[in-house]
Amino acid sequence: MTLTAGALADPLVERPAVDTTDLQTLAPGWAATNPLRGLAQAQAIGRQAFNQTCARCHGAEADGSRSPAPDLRRIGLACRRVKDAELKQRCLSDADHFFVTSVRYGKQKFGIVHMPPFDGVLEPALVYALRSYVETAPRP
Ligand code: HEC
């Protein structure tokens, strides 16, 4: 796909220089829900990675202060209010899926790249660490 090839040629689409060796080993592939949710180490690594790779568009606190990139803190926020454990899990799964696919495939509309795809650049552990960080970013 030409969009992906173009984005990969973009020098700004590169893996952040973060060390993930201390993260727990994950099963290969993409999980149904973020396996690194709530882990301090993942949040710290995710924060570093976010600052290097995402903050230029989404703002350092993921708050969308750099319009037009949206506030990422609200993704899955409503799940916190869900009381039923099974339903809450499905809610989080859905939010994680949205986050992961947004990062992997980017956002293109009418052939214009609003966000480049990071598939093949960021491995699952790093995407989950990013997700873990965004969930801890200060909320309004
Ligand atoms: C070149 C700027 C740019 C970079 C770099 C970028 N994004 Fe985005 N991102 C955007 C824009 C703009 C949108 C909204 C696109 C749209 O919906 O049309 C978006 C949308 C998203 C969404 C969906 C949000 C929603 O509510 O619709 C997620 C999740 C996301 N980005 C995560 C990330 C992460 C994590 C990174 C770093 C790995 C990143 N982005 C890097 C510009 C960027």
Automatic annotation (TrEMBL):
Residues 41-138 form the Cytochrome c domain. It comes from the Bacteria. It holds the Pfam family Cytochrome_CBB3. Signal peptide: none annotated. Keywords: Heme, Iron, Metal-binding. This is C-type cytochrome.
